[in-house]
Design goal:
Residues 90-111 have a biased composition (Low complexity). Residues 77-111 are annotated as: Disordered. There is one protein chain. The protein contains seven helices and four strands; from the N terminus they run βαβααβαβααα. Helix 3 crosses helix 7 (211-249), helix 5 packs across helix 7 (211-249) and helix 6 packs across helix 7. The chain has helices at residues 26-31, 59-64, 97-129, 152-156, 166-183, 193-201, 211-249, and strands at 22-23, 40-41, 138-140, 162-164. The protein is mainly alpha-helical. The strands form two sheets. The protein has a two-stranded antiparallel ribbon. A two-stranded antiparallel ribbon has the order 3-4. Among the domains are: 11-52, no CATH class; 128-164, no CATH class; 166-254, no CATH class. Helix content is 45%, strand content 4%.
């Protein structure tokens, strides 16, 4: 009787791709994170992480084996936890130490850049909200001088976005610093957090702005923090649910 061969399917998902294989949308540069199911893979990306061990092919299997192109889908699920390529100790070699130092330096620069963009993004929103009452908070991007090195706000705008003024942008940066001191990594549980934070910020402002605009800056920054916290809680609950289900289905738990 002839033996029947059983084959196991091996799937390629987002955890097999390094972080450099994904395109970063503008929302990630502004807010510092990328929502689930919104990141896209480069068309020429190649899986390099956590690859499955493939047994050597026999002579009969070599005849039937075919090289199939990997289907690249733009809609990639981001439910699994990604591991950067530089975190694997086994993959590091002495020859790649200089490359890793350059990567670390570039990543530290990228961590500082979204904070600056976030302050400008919030300040531009406040300038748009109060453009009818106070026109000194910002100007429309179509009124800016067109230069070779354009700002990202000028590039994505069609002329209707508001570019914050220097005084409003300075207030937004001070607000962002005091916001981190007041709330820490979470949110302060005191009453009237908007008014209390405004009282802390106002003495440090060299250029006065309307109190309504300052409160709008604080509210917008608070809502962004709240959305980040809710997203982290949802991801943690989803992982905990998958771990519980793995106990019943005898599957490998997902961390």
């Amino acid at each position: 009787m002839r033996k029947r061969k059983y084959f196991t399917k091996i799937w390629i998902c987002s955890k097999h791709f390094a972080d450099e294989a994904f395109t970063k949308p503008l929302q990630e540069h502004l807010l510092g994170y990328s929502p689930i199911r919104t990141r896209k893979i480069h068309p020429d990306a190649i899986p390099t992480l956590h690859l499955h061990a493939v047994p050597p092919l026999t002579s009969n299997e070599n005849v039937l084996a075919e090289t199939m192109p990997l289907p690249v889908s733009n809609e990639v699920s981001m439910d699994v936890e990604q591991t950067p390529a530089s975190s694997s100790i086994e993959e590091q070699t002495p020859a790649s130490s200089s490359t890793e130092e350059q990567t670390a330096a570039s990543s530290s620069t990228e961590e500082q850049t979204p904070a600056k963009y976030k302050a400008k993004y919030i300040a531009g929103y406040v300038a748009f909200r109060f453009k009818s009452t106070d026109k000194t908070l910002g100007i429309e991007t179509r009124q800016l001088e067109t230069t070779g090195d354009q700002d990202w706000l000028q590039v994505i705008s069609r002329g209707k976005c508001m570019y914050p003024s220097d005084k409003l942008l300075q207030c937004a940066r001070i607000m962002n610093i005091e916001f981190a001191k007041y709330h820490g990594s979470s949110l302060n549980k005191e009453n009237l957090i908007f008014q209390n934070l405004a009282k802390i910020i106002e003495p440090q402002l060299k250029i006065k702005i309307p109190r309504e605009a300052l409160l709008c800056l604080i509210r917008t920054r608070t809502y962004i923090r709240l959305r980040e916290m809710n997203r982290a809680i949802a991801i943690a609950n989803h992982r905990q649910k998958r771990r519980k289900m793995s106990k019943f289905t005898n599957k490998k738990p997902v961390y």
